[in-house]
Amino acid sequence: ERLVKALGEPLVVIRRSALTEILADALADGTLHNGLAVREGSALVSMLGLRPGDRVAQANGIALAGIDDILVAFVKPLIASQPVHVAGIRDGKPAAWLFLNAGACPG
After folding, report:
1. DSSP letter string, 47-93
2. Cis bond leading into 10, ω under 30°?
3. pLDDT tier at 30 (50, 70, 90 boundaries)?
4. What is the distance of C-alpha 50 from the center of its chain?
5. Which whole-number Å values give the CA distances from 60 to 42, 44, 63, 85, in the listed order?
6. The pLDDT of residue 31
7. Is residue 2 a contact partner of residue 8, using CB atoms and an 8 Å limit?
């Protein structure tokens, strides 16, 4: 009731993945691009093996939509010496990257 009072009616709750699917189905093919786009060829981008134009869509199965997602799905696992599997798009084709914490590698 508190949400209805604060936001008014009608109040609809929908999962982000379901909303994305509904909206994507309403658009022409190729209109919606999921994930985060690499826009510049900075030293960090180059060090990660990414290029301008690459899109990263998921890290360890978590959809990437903003900085919070990067922290949870990418940075925290690397700090914990866990591998990060990234899925995305390069040159219009599916691509995959594996990131490891070099400090966690033997030798």
Report:
1. HTT--TT-EEEEETTEE--SHHHHIIIIIHHHHTT--EEEEEEETTE
2. yes
3. low
4. 14
5. 24, 20, 9, 5
6. 61
7. no
Q: Which two tokens stand for residue 11?
A: 């109040």
Signed CA dihedral, 67, 41, 84, 96: sign only = positive
- Tokens 């033997």 sit at which residue? 106
Q: How far apart are CA 49 and CA 69, in angstroms?
A: 20
Partner residues linked to 55 by β-bridges: 37, 89
With a pLDDT cut of 90, the percent of the chain lying above it is: 21
The answer to whether the pTM exceeds 0.70 is no
Residue 99: helix, strand or coil by DSSP? strand
